[in-house]
Structures are given as C-alpha cells and as structure tokens.
Amino acid sequence: MLGVLRGMGITLKNFLASYVLPRRPDSLETGGIVTVQYPEERLPEKENFRNFPFLVFDGTVDNIRCVSCDICAKECPPKCIYIVRDTDSEGKPLKRPKVFDIDFTVCMNCGICEEACPFDAIFMDHEFEIGGPERQKSLVYHRDDLLKSTAHFQKIRPTDFAAIEERRKKDAEKKAAAQATVQAAAQPKPQTPPSPQP
Ligand code: SF4
Ligand code: SF4
C-alpha cells in the first residue's frame, strides 16, 4: 500500500511539474515533462559541453596564439586539420598559420586538438548550429572562420579560462625570471683593480 501511495505521489508531482507549475530549466532533474520545444526553447548549456574547435586570439585577430606547430593536426584522429605555415616576403617561416582548415564533416568532436596544443591556441566551442546548404562550402572552416577572442572563451567556459590564464601567468613569470638570470650571468664582471706595489 505504501508503495502504491509513493508511486501515485511521484505521478502527481510530475503532473504538477509538467502542467501546473512554471517550467524549470532543470526539469530533467526535478521531474515534469522533459521535451524541449527547440529552437523556441533551449536547455542551458553546460560549461563542459563541447562541439567543434575554434582558434583563439588575444585582443585583436593579429595576435593569434597558434604558432603553426602542426601538433594538433598530427594528433587529430580522423586527420581533419590542415595547416600551412605562413612565411615572410623572403620565404622565412613565421610562427603563425597561413592556412588552418578544419573539415567539420569529419571532425568527431573528441577535443584531442585542445588537449594536445601546447600553446592554448585551440579550444572546443559550444556552437552547434552550423548546418548549411552546401557541404564543402559550409562545413570546411578556414582560419578566419575559426578565429574567436579570449573573451568568447571566457564567456562559454569561465572555469577553464580562469585556470588556464592562471597557469599562463605563472609560466610567463617563470620565463621572465629565467631570462633575467641568464642576462645577469651574461653581464661582464667588474674588473678587480691591481694591488698596489710595495
Ligand atoms: S593550434 Fe596549437 S597545436 Fe595546433 S598548430 Fe596551432 S599551436 Fe600547434
Ligand atoms: S575535435 Fe578531434 S576530430 Fe575534431 S579537429 Fe579536434 S582532434 Fe580532430
């Protein structure tokens, strides 16, 4: 009897949550109807949700973090990243990509590129509404399509952003201290004046 009453109580709770009480965004956890009337209704995005990668820049698009090291392209399991390093007018290689393409028809959203990048230059985005009428034109993203600011990263993943920025700050401090030590060691030592003759 107790079990029947408990079951009826759960049914009543779900009925009220579905049709009487205001809809709550966490209704998947709290009970009630769970169908989301997308796109009019949307569930709040979880911070750890990931979809396709983007390239991050600091401040302006000229300050792209990617140094074109090719590590993410080598680590990408389905090999959907294609990178060509940029060069200067004399053909000398530069630390930035001239071409950086990702084929989103092949990308399997694994996030390995983000994990592999030693320069915090590529992160997984929350964007998923990327459908288009023409597969190659719409879903092969080029370098400029992939660029997004650090402010975007901070907005979608504030916890990761804070942790990464803290680590980058500490790394920069360590690097500056090491450079200062090297520079101090390279300074010429002051000459010792000759001892006076007796
Ligand atoms: S995104 Fe990172 S791993 Fe990939 S090429 Fe650029 S710097 Fe290297
Ligand atoms: S998320 Fe995975 S499959 Fe997609 S580009 Fe990155 S490494 Fe490749």
List the helices and strands and how they pair.
Blueprint (H helix, E strand, L loop, with lengths): L1 H18 L7 H4 L22 E5 L13 H5 L5 E7 L5 E11 L8 H5 L5 E3 L10 H5 E2 L1 H4 E3 H7 L1 H29 L12
Parallel strand pairs: 1-6
Antiparallel strand pairs: 1-4, 2-3, 3-5
Bound molecules: iron/sulfur cluster (2 copies).
One iron/sulfur cluster (SF4) binds next to helix 3.
Report on this model:
- The chain has 198 residues and is of the alpha+beta class.
- It has a domain at 53-177: 2-Layer Sandwich (Alpha-Beta Plaits), CATH 3.30.70.3270.
- Helix content is 39%, strand content 16%.
- The protein contains 8 helices and 6 strands; from the N terminus they run ααβαββαβαβαβαα.
- The strands form 2 sheets. Strands 4-1-6 form a 3-stranded mixed beta sheet. Strands 2-3-5 form a 3-stranded antiparallel beta sheet.
- Helix 7 crosses helix 8 (158-186).
- The longest helix is centred in the C-terminal third of the chain and has 29 residues, at 158-186.
- The N and C termini lie far apart (115 Å).
- The relative contact order is 0.13.
- The model has no long low-confidence stretch (mean pLDDT 90).
- Bound molecules: iron/sulfur cluster (SF4) (2 copies).
- One iron/sulfur cluster is lined by residues 66-72, 83, 116-117, 119, 121-122.
